[in-house]
């Protein structure tokens, strides 16, 4: 058993959060999950204690920090669908920015010393080169990205005024599921490409929509940097080790540094499925970047992070296996 004090993971019953909680628990950490289960699922919490509650509720957060003697927080709770944020921006500023403000205020009062924050490549907007390093100017184009960036700013400023040290992890396109099939993405009507395509392959939706086939990319479809959720979970553990070792506050991209197009992803799904899947092509959507790929050199250099699942076929195979298990579970 790890001798460190318990770690609080907000949003630990959700897609990424459940993988992070499982990975930390497996290496002997004591993990407490705080999740309101609005999109998460209690059955996804494995090897950790689940407290059902809202990160935006100050009394709940203060009680959890106090009762469990928390000195390290991994903050993943929040809303994550960019198009939805355009339709309902205040919901995103409340659920992401304001809730993070509440959490940080409670952490400051409780003397939390380390904080790992789940941010997003959406803070970069649409960089002209299609490649974003941590030094690329931030220019979010939707309230989701803006809500994440505002949370980063609050964390930065609190750190400057206190002893709190942090690691901000800017996720690129998270995909796949636990390679042993223990947890995965349970959210219905998800918008993530690989999950949606695997749902088509397993008969859970009729077709996959492709938005834009005339981008200035090799095959005309958008290119993204897909990172396996298991590698992302390990990045959180590595960030925690870095902070425990006295590392200074840092911002890090989480991606592989290379991209796959929508058509390449769909071909990978068809390979794994063993048959074509129905595709419907639509015009590109306003605000969709042709390409967004991480410059991921810093996380490798600073944390020594070494991905193990950097293969689109492996990512898709794990996602498809999970969707098949869900389809069987749902009957």
Key descriptive features of the protein:
Rossmann fold; seven-stranded parallel sheet; UDP-galactose 4-epimerase, domain 1; globular; alpha/beta; 331 residues
What would your notes on this structure say?
The chain has 331 residues and is α/β, with parallel strands linked by helices. The chain is 40% helix and 18% strand. It has ten helices and 15 strands. It has a seven-stranded parallel β-sheet with strand order 3-2-1-4-5-7-12, sandwiched between helices. Strands 6-15-10-13 form a four-stranded mixed β-sheet. Helix 1 links the parallel strand 1 and strand 2 (31-35). Helix 1 crosses helix 7 and helix 6 (193-201) packs parallel to helix 8. It starts with 6 loop residues before the first strand and ends with a helix. GO terms for molecular function: UDP-glucose 4-epimerase activity. One of its GO terms (biological process) is galactose catabolic process via UDP-galactose, Leloir pathway. Belongs to the short-chain dehydrogenases/reductases (SDR) family. Belongs to the NAD(P)-dependent epimerase/dehydratase family.
């Amino acid at each position: 058993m790890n001798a460190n004090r318990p770690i609080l993971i907000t949003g630990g019953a959700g897609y990424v959060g459940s993988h992070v909680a499982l990975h930390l628990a497996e290496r002997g950490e004591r993990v407490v999950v705080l999740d309101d289960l609005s999109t998460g699922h209690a059955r996804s919490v494995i090897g950790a204690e689940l407290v059902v509650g809202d990160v935006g509720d100050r009394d709940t957060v203060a009680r959890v920090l106090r009762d469990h003697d928390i000195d390290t927080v991994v903050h993943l709770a929040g809303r994550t669908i960019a198009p939805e944020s355009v339709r309902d921006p205040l919901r995103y500023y409340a659920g992401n920015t304001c809730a993070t403000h509440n959490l940080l205020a409670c952490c400051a009062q409780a003397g939390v010393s380390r904080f790992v924050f789940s941010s997003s490549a959406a803070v970069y907007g649409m960089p002209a080169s299609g490649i974003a390093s941590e030094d690329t100017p931030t220019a979010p184009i939707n309230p989701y990205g803006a809500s994440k960036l505002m949370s980063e700013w609050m964390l930065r400023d609190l750190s400057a005024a206190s002893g709190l040290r942090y690691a901000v992890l800017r996720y690129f396109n998270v995909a796949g599921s636990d390679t042993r099939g223990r947890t995965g993405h349970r959210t219905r009507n998800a918008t993530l490409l690989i999950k949606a395509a695997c749902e088509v392959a397993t008969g859970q939706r009729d077709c996959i929509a492709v938005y834009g086939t005339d981008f200035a990319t090799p095959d005309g479809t958008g290119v993204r940097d897909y990172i396996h959720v298991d590698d992302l979970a390990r990045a959180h553990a590595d960030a925690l080790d870095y902070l425990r070792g006295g590392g200074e506050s840092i911002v890090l991209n989480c991606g592989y540094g290379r991209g796959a197009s929508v058509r390449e992803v769909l071909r990978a799904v068809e390979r794994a499925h063993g048959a074509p899947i129905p595709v419907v092509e639509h015009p590109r959507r306003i605000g969709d970047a042709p390409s967004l790929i991480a410059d991921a050199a810093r996380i490798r250099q600073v944390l020594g992070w070494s991905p193990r699942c950097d293969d689109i076929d492996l990512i898709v195979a794990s996602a498809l296996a999970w969707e098949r298990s869900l389809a069987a579970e749902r009957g």
